[in-house]
Amino acid sequence: MAKYGFVIDVEKCTGCHSCFLACKDEFIGNDYLPTAAAQPDKGHTWIKLNEVEHGAGTKLKVDYIPHMCQHCEDTPCAAPAPAGAVYRRADGIVIIDPEKAKGCKSIVNACPYRAVYWNEAAQLPQKCTMCAHMLDNGEKTTRCAEACPTGALVFGDLADETSPAAKLLAQKGAKAEVFKPELGVAATTRYISLPKPFIAGEVLLADKPGECLKGAKVTLTAKDEAACQVETKTDFFGDFEFKNLAVNKNYVVKAEYEGYYAKEMTVRTYASLNIGALMLEPR
Amino acid sequence: MADREQVFTNLTNGGPISVYVRDGKIVRVRPLQIPEAEYKPWTIEAGGKEYSPPKAVRLSPPAHAERNRLESENRILYPLKRVDFDPNGERNPQNRGKSGYVRISWEEALDIVSGEIKRLTETYGGSAITGMTSSHHNWGVVGYKMGPFSRFMNMLNYTPVLDNPDSWEGWHWGATHMYGFQWRLGMPEQFDLLEDALKHTEMIVFWSNDPDTTRGTYSGQESAIWRVWLKEKGIKTVFIDPFFNYTAAAMDGTWLPPRPGTDTALAMAIAYVWLTEGTYDKAYIEEKTIGFGEFKDYILGVGDDKLAKTPEWAAAESGIEARKIIALAREWASKKTSLSSGARGGEGSACRTAYGTEWARMMVALQAMQGLGKPGISIWGTSMGAPADSDTWFPGYAEPRGQMGKSGVAKNKLSLQNKTKQRLFRLTLPEAILTGKEDFWGDGFCGQSLDQQFVHNTYPMEGHSTVKMFYRYGGSFMGTMSDTNKWVKMYQSDKLEFVVNQDCWYGSEAKFADIILPACTNLERNDLGEWAACGGYTTNAHIGNNYRVIVRQQKCVEPLGESKSDYEIFTLLADKLGLKELYTEGNTEDDWARLFYESSDVAKTLSWDEFNKKGYHLIPVPDDYQAKPALRWFAEGRAVDTADAGNPKRGTDKAAELGTYSGKIEFASESLRQNMPDDEERPIVPHYFPSWEGHRSEGYKKYPLQIISPHPRFSFHTAYDNHTAWVNEIPLHRVEKDGYQWWPVRLNPADAKARNVKGGDIVELYNDRGSVLCIAEVTERVPAGVLHSYGCSAKYDPLVPGKPGSTDKAGCVNLLTTSRMLSKHAPGMTPNSCLCELRKWEG
Predict the structure, then answer these.
(1) Are A12 and A145 contained in the same domain?
(2) Between B56, B221, B780, which is nearest A16 by CB?
(3) Residue A239: pLDDT band with limits 50, 70, 90
(4) CB contact under 8 A, A211 and B779
(5) Phi-psi map region of B756: left, alpha, beta (phi>0 left; psi -120 to 50 alpha)
(6) A188 and A208: one domain?
(7) Could you report the per-residue pLDDT of B629-642, keeping only the tens digit for each?
(8) Do residues A276 and A140 both lie within one domain?
(9) Of A209, B277, B283, B818, which residue is least crowded by CB atoms under 10 Å?
(10) Average pLDDT, chain A
(11) Chain A residues touching residue B739 (CB < 8 angstroms)
């Protein structure tokens, strides 16, 4: 039995919105009963890209997180629904039945990922179906994955090790995670390289402020977890960066260079940080 | 569902598509469905890895919404006449842009248009008629603008309006005088630079370039995977751009945002570091270039201005710290560095600023100092340069062999027979109409020779009439040209006795016409074409794709409403004028398609019937393919060996030379020295001049915000904007508020705070030239003092219709930009030298 799923490599998503448009093309005005009724002309984004701009000044990152129904094993959206109105198929696809779910608006708010949309005209809750009608017709992909130019959005049968999604999971599975695991609903979509806070800055020498300092040692220590320490060197611009940090933790950034006094700065990762320049005084 | 469903093939400006039709209606559009087994992908080996593209075609984003665009509520469905236009009585030109329209029959519309053509040509001659097209809204060798439109208008001996090289001005008017490539309109060849970069390049400096957004023009997202490879390979990237662009976001490079218009100063400081530290390729300079001494003197401050172009000086101009400039210069010189200064190598918004010629020349200068053409050292946009067959010829719309007015397949080569020599120039068309006279330098696209730029045209030309009729085909310049309130004034002039607009959608100019004619899209007619391969001055443009794809563009549905193909419209008009046989030669559109196909090399191996049945054809890369990277031949002193078919020195005894007068890279330009030695704004050696509309200009005191308006991300110029509701829904293409879809302007949090503006506010951008409403997007992606808003709104929606200067609600930021050109003798547009202010709109 197939086990369909998305594996999403956020690092590769450029925010092109091809998936967003391809999804609209597939579903607007087109009924695919019994898995989907037509999407309304406007307002639904069964797949959307959440833009995350973080950092400040020239130490900036912009990431895009493809967001759609996570096809959870626990189907929390089924809770308020009449019997059989929301069901998870054996192949893993969660379907909101376009007939039985009619009028049940509470399904929209039962989704903790906010991936269900209300069709006012049809009085229907609607969402991503993993293009079930195409799969049932023998196709191997969804419209969104087909449109993705970089391999950021990969779909396939996770039970088939030759499928693109299974291959990507095998390759980068160690880094794969669930979006918002704290929701505890056994989402099946896997994300690789979800954006996390970073700390970036520059190291300068007080007696040579007109030169970029390459090769200064910069150490990051997590204050709350003593064992956690990472080290890097400044690049030719004198810049350093620590990526993939935890949110809302205290960190100590320490810059060192031979012949100069080390300098420390304690910061907290409410969000990504550009801490500016650490100016080292000569010994 | 399969029983009633038919699948057609077609081609858009963003890639090839499969069109699924049920009951005469398009139900879905997918990337062209080609069975995997038919793909024969190339492989590049580099650094112990093999790189090979996916077996699929990667469309430009909006091409996925082609169905939605076709059925747009903004389609023009019927012939229309302005209510207060009477060709036999009051014409009321002053009401163009104000008055409404009434539906008329095709018969009446054709009678009016042909009647006006007859009246004007009989009274004044053909030169009284002018006309011009917009670009890119459709695709196809038979139906593209240079086919039916051009054939018809030339038959009338009309006065053409010459295009300016709008996307690559500085390269055209500047870089050509340094390294030639005038046959590519100033942009460098890009052959095999993907392989060269993967094998050799250690750093890429993206300068005013966002290839993930501009996509090699027509190549969809084929090159997106190349940049994934480059990133995974760990190649360092630096982005010099006032906007933290989408490619910078994707590649996570270092961002250096200069003040708009100061890029040339930054480039000169890099040259200064190399000169003073001796870190440039002296042997290359000695052998391959001339005039370096004069250039060196200017940079070091012993030239005419006695100003050393030091990093500290450039820091004061650009806002980039001197230490960052020095660090970049040193790294650049110590690594094999590719300069990515525009989608096709050349282009980039910095080339559309005051003195943009000088920036483009400096881009060439920098890479020349590092040995341009040596392994890994290139000028490369990162969106062209895949391995590809270059022996199989297929017609492209921009080459004579691909145009029904000029091709050998035509019996009457009408486009070659236009007896009118008078010309107008797009950027000054409004002035020409309004004042009745105009003069301009160059011939628009000066691809024939360097000397063509020094031609001086005068309007009206002796023995010719001023123009009295404007046949507008397409029409969206309110959102793409400069200082566009002047187009409103032009349209309302009584000197234009008659205006026609022929388009598929209501563009921003449609409702300035007296008669509007509904054209159909290329999904509603038969045609053929090769993906991305426009031909002409961009030969082999298919190297932006991973595969060469030839498509039989099949009519998928009947034309909507009463719309007709352009060819049919011009045929009907020709019939009214008694010129039908001359115009058509008895050919239907499909006859032309077949004639073009059979003139191609593809027909030698695949019959028309087979091609017609299958709908597409892939031209594979030859098994024995050998990479011949761009300009390697020049660096190695060999005859040109790339597929750059337009290079006029190929096959001559000068085949190892560039297109400059000397055949070398000219740091001091001989073509400028010989033709315009006293031009102080485009001097013999590249110079830096503070912008006449920048942080040092007088206007800055009143309007201290600099707005840049580069090419857009989710539409193709104006194509797909406004007419494609799904595209309008993409966040930050447009943003809906209170039921209106606003055009975004990006501004820095500091500027927003100072003006009490927050994200999502409707704001007014204004200066002495115009006023535009946008929705504010507060972001760190622009530095303080800079606004970013894409220059390509397809909608013009003034608060007071038809009133020049009225505040536009729809985001035509071009209303704010200046008419002033790059410089006195370089008539290029400068939308990225623009000062304005911004305030919360509370009206």
Answers:
(1) yes
(2) B221
(3) very high
(4) no
(5) left
(6) no
(7) 999 999 999 999 99
(8) no
(9) B283
(10) 96
(11) none
Dihedral-angle region of residue A33 (phi above 0 means left; psi in -120 to 50 means alpha; beta otherwise): beta
Point out the residues of B that are catalytic: 136, 166, 397
Report the number of distinct structural domains present in chain A: 2
Q: What angle do CA B62, B525, B565 make, to 5 degrees?
A: 100
Query: Which of A192, A208, A235 is at the close of a domain?
Result: A192
Confirm or reject contact between A56 and chain B (CB < 8 A).
yes
State whether residue B47 sits within 8 Å of chain A by CB.
Answer: no
The CATH number of the domain holding residue A112 is: 3.30.70.20
The number of residues making up chain A comes to 283
Contact call for A20 and B730, based on CB within 8 A = yes
Nearest to B61 among A18, A41, A235 (CB): A18
Name the minimum distance, in Å, from the CA of B814 to any CA of chain A.
25
Q: Which two tokens stand for residue B494?
A: 């009584």
Shortest Cα distance, chain A CAs vs residue B733, angstroms: 10
- Alpha-carbon distance of A212 to B130, in angstroms, equals 58
Q: Are residues A56 and A183 in the same domain?
A: yes
The reply to whether A283 touches chain B by the CB within 8 Å rule is: no
A57 and A104 in a common domain? yes
User: Looking at residue B3, what is its pLDDT?
Assistant: 56
Q: Which domain holds residue A258?
A: 199-280
How does pLDDT run across B227-246, given as a tens digit for each residue?
999 999 999 999 999 999 99
Chain B: residue whose CA lies nearest to A33: B1
For the question of an ipTM over 0.85, the answer is yes
Instruction: Extract the tokens encoding B794.
Output: 């397809």
pLDDT tier, B475 (very low <50, low <70, confident <90, very high otherwise)? confident
Rounded to 10°, the helix B322-334/B311-318 angle is 120
* Closest approach of A79 to chain B, Cα-based (Å): 31
The answer to whether B379 and B369 have CB atoms below 8 angstroms apart is no
Which band of pLDDT confidence, cut at 50, 70 and 90, is reported for residue B1?
Answer: very low
* Domains, chain B, with CATH or none: 5-70 (2.20.25.340), 80-164+393-619 (3.40.50.740), 169-387+627-675 (3.40.228.10), 698-840 (2.40.40.20)
How far, in Å, are A198, B108, B441, B567 from residue B159 at the CA level? Answer: 60, 26, 17, 20
Among A12, A20, A21, A214, most B C-beta atoms within 10 A, so best to mutate, is A21
Choose the final residue of a domain: A170, A192, A214. Answer: A192
Asked if the Cβ–Cβ distance from B324 to A51 is below 8 Å, we say no
Interface of B with A in 594-633 (CB under 8 A): none
Q: Does A58 touch chain B (CB under 8 A)?
A: yes
- Do A252 and A173 fall within a single domain? no
Task: Determine whether B270 is exposed, middle or buried from the number of CB atoms within 10 Å of its CB (0-12, 13-18, 19+).
Answer: buried
